[in-house]
Amino acid sequence: MKENTVSTSPVAITCDSLLAEEAELQLKYFDETVAWQLGTWMVETAQREASAPTLSITRGRHRLFHFAFAGTSADNDDWVARKSNTVYRFGHSSWYMALLVAKENTDGATRYQISAADYTFGGGGVPIFVRHAGLVGCVAVSGIPGDRDHTLAVDALLAVIKKQGEEE
Question: What CA–CA distance (Å, rounded) separates 143 from 77?
């Protein structure tokens, strides 16, 4: 895997760029070992960058990895759950959904008649797609700014995709 660093791209984030990102983030396979690789990559990266998020990786509704740094709380657990709910309901990242409803000058709860206690629209929930299978899981991050939550998850997925490509 590549060195654990979170990218800091100056590119403006749009719904289209997030859809393109989702199309790129296609794993060959996803299992418990891959969840561990994703999770430990994020833990090591957050430690090096002195970040303190809560991390959650699920397959369907089965939690395969969870880590909460010192300084986080049960509130962060609620945030990762709501971000995951958003990913599973809409099939897109929670950041994509935030930008989508912002373009409509509304919020997710109003637009989709859902509870803000169960769903949230902001960075940090990223779908896990497997090629030829579709959405199989979610990486959710809470506790650092939303764009960094999102980027940490995406960079971990890119590192695992690269590793899977090297296995060929």
Answer: 10
| Residue 11 banded pLDDT, cuts 50, 70, 90 | low
Rounded to an integer, what distance in angstroms lies between the CA atom of residue 22 and that of residue 129? 8
125: β partners: 140
Average pLDDT for 100-126? 95
Tell me the domain boundaries of the chain: 15-166
- CA–CA gap between residue 110 and residue 121 (Å, rounded): 12
Instruction: Give the domain 15-166 fold.
Output: Beta-Lactamase (3.30.450)
**pTM over the 0.70 mark:** yes
DSSP conformation letters of 90-128 = HSS-HHHHHHHHHHTTS-HHHHHT--TTT---STTEEEE
pLDDT at 1 over 80: no
Residue 59: its pLDDT value, please?
98
Asked if residue 142 lies in contact with residue 54, where contact means CB atoms within 8 angstroms, the answer is yes
